[in-house]
Specification:
The structure holds two protein chains of two kinds.
Chain A: E1 7-11, H1 16-31, E2 36-40, H2 61-70, H3 87-97, H4 103-112, E3 116-120, H5 121-126, E4 138-142, H6 144-150, E5 155-158
Chain B: E1 3-6, H1 14-24, E2 31-37, H2 40-51, E3 55-61, E4 66-72
Parallel strand pairs in B: 1-2
Antiparallel strand pairs in B: 2-4, 3-4
Classes of the chains: A alpha/beta, B alpha+beta.
Chain lengths: 159, 73
């Protein structure tokens, strides 16, 4: 068996197209025998929120407002040509038309393949989010030291 | 039991993903028949199966640019 490097993908962006790219690389790598970890921080955390739409999460007014505006998995904007939020839906329609896996399908595949999902402790702290606000598939909440230790001998991709 | 998978309508990365997940549900020694397109899937699906320690028993063209690959877990 060929010796393959582990892959860690830092999901900083919460843009729909970039998240699709991250999950495409992650699932492709896991399906071809690589150990894959996805580390979600800041905007990327929107993907992991249990509430998939807009929700007033957190305690303070600022955190609640930021969380509402940042939204969840179903409100990810396109990085360009977002047109007030309609583009992600249109793009999903085009993906289906061409038999390309949609974001929910990619996330489901990632879970089935055992890809590790980690959430950034610091970003969660800023946004006043807790473990209970994140989907069950999140394996752990970690800091940058843990993330670096675990990805030391592999490739790191920043999205 | 014959395991069968048609991935001719799938695109990257679901081509490998579906094969990998299907193989994961099978017992050792069981066989999986995969119909796939030439190009990327034909180049990489059998190779990635072999890397995982599975045996590619045969690859044959079955017309219309499709190929039938038989894999043993």
């Amino acid at each position: 068996m060929a010796d393959k490097k582990d892959l860690t993908i830092v999901c900083f962006s919460g843009d729909f197209d970039k998240v699709v790219a991250a999950f495409t690389m992650a699932t492709g790598a896991a399906a071809t025998n690589r150990k894959v970890t996805m580390f979600f921080t800041f905007w990327g955390l929107n993907v992991l929120k249990k509430k998939q739409g807009r929700a007033w999460l957190g305690q303070g007014l600022m955190a609640k407002t930021f969380n509402f505006l940042m939204g969840g998995r179903k409100t990810l904007p396109l990085s360009r040509l977002n047109f007030g939020g309609v583009s992600a839906g249109l793009m999903t329609g085009m993906m289906k038309k061409h038999n390309v896996a949609t974001l929910p399908e990619l996330i489901e595949a990632a879970n089935a393949l055992g890809i590790r999902l980690l959430a950034c402790e610091m970003a969660l702290h800023i946004l006043e989010l807790g473990r209970e606000d994140l989907v069950d598939e999140v394996e752990d909440i970690v800091g940058v030291a843990t993330f670096l230790n675990e990805s030391e001998n592999g490739h790191i991709i920043f999205v | 039991m014959i395991n069968f998978l048609d991935i001719t309508k799938e695109t990257c990365p679901m081509t490998f993903v579906k094969v990998k997940l299907q193989l994961a549900t099978m017992e050792e020694g069981q066989e999986l028949e995969v119909i796939l397109n030439e190009g990327e899937p034909l180049k990489n699906v059998p190779a990635s199966c072999e890397e995982q320690g599975y045996k590619v028993l045969s690859i044959e063209a079955c017309g219309d640019n499709k190929h039938r690959v038989l894999i043993q877990k």
